[in-house]
Amino acid sequence: MSEEAKVSKVEVEKAGSRQLRGTIAEELDPSQECFSGGNIGFLKHHGTYQQDNRDDRGVKSEDGAKKGKSYMMMVRSRIPGGQLTADDLLAELDMCDEFGNGTLRITSRQGLQLHGVLKDDLKPTIQAINEKTTLTTLGACGDVNRNVMCCPAPIRGNAVHDQMQELSQQIAHHFRPHTTAYQEIWLQDSEGEKEKVAEFSPAEEPIYGECYLPRKFKIGIALPEDNCVDIQTYDLGLLAIVENDEIIGYNVYVGGGQGVTPAAKKTYAAVGLKMTFVPADKAIPVAEAIIRAWSDNGNRLDRKQARIKYLVREWGLEKFKAKVEEYYGNPLPDPRPEEINDVNDHMGWHEQGDGKLYLGINVENGRIKDDGDLQLKTGLRAILGKFKQPCRLTAMQGLILCDIDPADRDAIDQLMVNHGIKKADELSLVRRFSMACPALPTCGLSVTESERVLPGVIDDLEVELNKHGMQDERIAVHMTGCPNGCARPYSPDIGLVGKSRGKYTLYLGGNTLGTRIGFIFQDQVPLEEIGTTVSPLLGYFKTERTDSESFGDFCARKGLEDLQQRATV
Ligand code: HEM
Ligand code: SF4
Q1: By the number of CB atoms within 10 A of the CB, which of 20, 251, 315, 443 ranks highest?
Q2: Pairwise CA distance, residues 487 & 481, whole Å
Q3: Residues with CB under 6 A from ligand 2
Q4: What angle is formed at CA 408 by the lines to CA 404 and CA 409, rounded to 5 degrees?
Q5: Which CATH number does 430-568 carry?
Q6: Where in the chain is the domain with CATH 3.30.413.10?
């Protein structure tokens, strides 16, 4: 094998990119219709994807000629722990009107996305995010540590949640890319330039080196009784172990990941494996040792095999752990026995424990927009503009308003009613625990609809659940428009993965806790038959479940064959 063949084309491109500069600055010239070659990949590290409006594909112009692609950019802000200010969110809402398609999306990893940004508006958009908010887009995508997720609940009765949030900020800072390409390309001429330049120098990349990571890396932080961020679906999960209201350390999970490529047989979804326990002050050094062990030994030839989950399985957990110990320089103990045992979506009104309240607002599929009676964008502007609460984004694409004075509760409730925003208890649990990726029309990889059709599927499932008298059942349904799995469809009770036009692979047997990968129950289920396909199983579940058994646990216990028989009865 030649030297060059030992790494993939993307690795060669990254190495030659001058720390992710490529020729992005040159291609920003308005004479260029779109970005090309390696720049498309480098741009991801700057937090932006080149896309085209797929609703426009094949559309002909007035003279009958086929129009070219309608290029546009998606711009993602990286928001560790989902923590942002009211002004940050208000500014992003303004930007979605000024530069985007008039909607703002809360992502499944506690980020924000602007969609439909035209290429000529890309630099002003990234500048505006840096100038008008406390956020950045650097490292939101690409082969780096992505947004660090953390339970967003602002619970203040003790220091536990604040300490977890603080760790998410520290991890994000520790693993940030140091390249100054971002400042050079996007922030020149912008007011915030000086501070940002100071923040990102020097240009030495102490952890990533010149090729950055073999692939993306995702971290999440949760508690055993509340895995709302789904830590076992990520490359690295930290489960806080609490004694006497103090975090004594974290159980460390490695090797979770959702993405699957059906054509590449050796790809699979997997949950993270419990590897060790670390005292709280050693969480970052151990995370660094894990990243270095993978970065030096992971697959840089085939990107489909590059995620840490493949290295952990190829070596086995023991060998992988031994390698991490080498990098860490000390032996690592066994993990503690604690396991994930519950999840909370944090919707509705709650006491924080410090006299203040927090309010979780469900945002269906994360899309903040005004649509008919539901004036969510306008309503949030009214609430945030008046009360300026600090905000948190949830990993279920929802929004939490924090630090609310109880005296303001009624006024906020009234503003919600005025704008058609439903309270948590007005929504079924199946809707609250549903999630979809964007898919069509923005995502270049989607094979089916997702976000635009999931609300209708949930309508159908609500009807079926009502028929069985099970409207209060907590069932998580996650849908994606392709097997890449951006809305984590392989681990909830019901997973729907776009397979071919209008048809989905139906997964069952995962769980709301996100601790198990489901199995394929049926392939190529037409969209309009999803509700009726699941319905007989809901009836079966109702009659044969054990006391507190969830739908996912029931399906896993019964298994594929048994469920298939019941579905045809
Ligand atoms: C491994 C293969 C994957 C590829 C090639 C991929 C690619 C993409 C693309 C192209 C988009 C843009 C969609 C749009 O803006 O219209 C996207 C969005 C996104 N992806 Fe992925 N993705 C992969 C896996 C994942 C996984 C496993 C997760 C999370 C567990 C994830 C999290 C996200 C998030 C949070 C978004 C933003 C939109 C949302 O909330 O769903 N991705 N991805
Ligand atoms: S799951 Fe597929 S269709 Fe959905 S956003 Fe991710 S890549 Fe696109």
Answers
A1: 20
A2: 9
A3: 437-439, 443, 445-446, 450, 480-482, 484-486
A4: 85
A5: 3.30.413.10
A6: 154-176+212-343, 430-568
